From TrEMBL:
Protein name in UniProt: Roadblock/LAMTOR2 domain-containing protein
Coiled-coil residues: none
Stored Pfam families: Robl_LC7
Classification via InterPro entries: Roadblock/LAMTOR2_dom
Source lineage: Bacteria, Bacillati, Actinomycetota, Actinomycetes, Kitasatosporales
Protein source organism: Streptomyces pluripotens
Domain of life: Bacteria
Residue span(s) of domain Roadblock/LAMTOR2: 11-99
Composition-biased stretches (Low complexity): 131-154
Length: 163
């Protein structure tokens, strides 16, 4: 689980990235499982993009492995109206950027790689911290059992109104 401080650090990095590359229309960090970690994607379904990114990542990893090109580093998709770029962000996350078609792709890669590396460091450190923390143990009181008397049937039960 990501602490509020770590989440704000990732969100800050996403916002700084959007400032450095004004043609970005969105940025999100997600786990390789397709779950959103943090996003700055106005007007875009971040959960849907993260899930589709995970699917595309699976294909990209397999393609890179099959062709002998090593581990996944980045994926670039060019559409009619813009770009979608995904970068590795540490061991268990990716950074996905949405950009207008007029973006300088070299600048997109430069800034995307830097931000992916920074976000990866933040998320990897948070994961290590969570792993190093002692497990939370719940101290529940011991359950005691009370002895009950024999059950009575409705005909044997007497109330204060019965004589």
């Amino acid at each position: 689980m990501l602490s509020e401080e770590d989440l704000q650090a990732v969100l800050g990095e996403l916002r700084r990235l959007r400032t450095r590359v004004p043609q970005l229309t969105g940025a999100l960090a997600a786990g390789v499982d397709g779950l959103v970690v943090a996003h700055d994607t106005p007007g875009v379904d971040a959960e849907g993009v993260a899930a589709l990114t995970a699917a595309a990542l699976g294909v990209a990893v397999r393609l890179a492995d099959t062709t002998g090109n090593g581990g996944f580093r980045e994926l670039l998709v060019r559409g009619e109206y813009g770009y979608l770029a995904t970068y590795a962000a540490g061991r268990t996350a990716v950074l996905t950027l949405l950009a207008q078609d007029r973006v300088n792709v070299g600048r997109l890669h430069l800034e995307g790689r830097r931000a992916g590396s920074q976000i990866g460091k933040l998320l990897d450190a948070a994961e290590e911290t969570a792993r190093a923390a002692p497990p939370v143990t719940r101290t529940t009181p011991a359950r005691t059992r009370t002895t009950r008397g024999p059950r009575t049937t409705a005909s044997e039960a007497h109330t204060t109104t019965d004589s």
